[in-house]
């Protein structure tokens, strides 16, 4: 049985007078399918009991990209350059992340997803990289160039990390489309990848549990631009299969 992998959605507006839409970019869905998983889009839900029913049907959780996170989740006031927030999505993803960590369900965080992982476990974020971090890199350069496959900067990956073992390398170039970044690292997580300016580009759990987050967008690279990223999605799906078997046993 292929594992069911939840992908949490964002809210979008097409026309101001129409109800908003839940959804996410097709590249996330494609990356999960390509790796052998069954994607299930998770809408933002106000009622945690309803959310829990959906969560219980998942064999793994993919927290995907998106806008900024409300700084109240890590005890800060909003910075003047805080970007778009989606309170209902924050409210949905925080319990999802905490449940997955508490129960050992595989969790892959991408971009906003690695930030949600960190905040849900007690860490904090830079609310606005350009004004809060001394750097010459533009961590939204692939976005401003309107090219998801534009390799904006290198990342150095910790030798002794799951990420390095999946990718088979400790140095690669990646895209970069983020406005915020990990600041204080939450208990139970450790940094495993960095941009040349020191910005954290990857976090992992400190246990055997598959808890891996990257700041870049491998789902947009895995098909053509850098197929080495396929190994990350395959490793994630493999862990979801193992989790499924553990539950069924
Ligand atoms: Mn970056």
What tags apply to this protein structure?
single chain, 249 residues, alpha/beta, two-stranded antiparallel sheet
Helices and strands in order, then pairings?
Blueprint lengths: L3 E5 L1 E3 L8 E3 L2 H9 L3 E5 L5 H9 L3 E4 L23 H17 L3 E4 L1 H9 L4 E2 L2 H4 L8 H4 L8 E5 L4 H6 L3 E4 L6 E2 L6 E6 L5 E6 L5 E4 L15 H19 L1
Parallel strand pairs: 1-4, 1-5, 5-6, 6-13
Antiparallel strand pairs: 2-3, 7-10, 8-9, 8-11, 11-12, 12-13
Helix pairs in contact: 3-4
The protein binds manganese (II) ion.
The site of manganese (II) ion (MN) has 8 residues, from loops.
Q: What's the gist of this structure?
A:
By secondary structure, this protein is α/β, with parallel strands linked by helices. It has one domain (4-244): 3-Layer(aba) Sandwich (Rossmann fold), CATH 3.40.50.880.
């Amino acid at each position: 049985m292929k594992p069911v992998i939840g992908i949490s959605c964002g809210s979008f507006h097409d026309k101001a007078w129409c109800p908003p839409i839940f959804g996410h970019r097709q590249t996330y869905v494609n990356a999960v399918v390509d790796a052998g998983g069954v994607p299930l889009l998770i809408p933002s839900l106000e009622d945690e009991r309803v959310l829990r029913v959906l969560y219980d049907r998942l064999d793994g959780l993919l927290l995907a990209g998106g806008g900024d996170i409300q700084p109240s989740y890590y005890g800060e006031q909003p910075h003047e350059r805080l970007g778009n927030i989606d309170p209902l999505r924050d409210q949905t993803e925080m319990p999802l992340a905490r449940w997955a960590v508490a129960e050992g369900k595989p969790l892959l965080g991408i971009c906003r997803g690695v930030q949600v992982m960190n905040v849900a476990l007690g860490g904090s974020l830079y609310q606005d990289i350009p004004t809060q971090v001394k750097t010459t890199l533009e961590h939204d350069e692939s976005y401003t160039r309107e090219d998801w496959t534009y390799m904006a900067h290198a990342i150095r990956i910790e030798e002794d990390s799951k990420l390095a073992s999946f990718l088979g390398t400790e140095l690669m170039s990646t895209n970069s489309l983020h406005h915020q970044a990990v600041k204080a690292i939450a208990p139970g997580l450790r940094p495993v990848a960095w941009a040349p300016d020191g910005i954290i580009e990857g976090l992992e759990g400190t246990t055997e549990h598959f808890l891996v987050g990257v700041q870049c967008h491998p789902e947009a690279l895995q098909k053509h631009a850098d197929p080495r990223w396929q190994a990350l999605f395959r490793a994630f799906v493999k862990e979801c299969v193992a989790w499924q078997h553990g539950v069924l046993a």
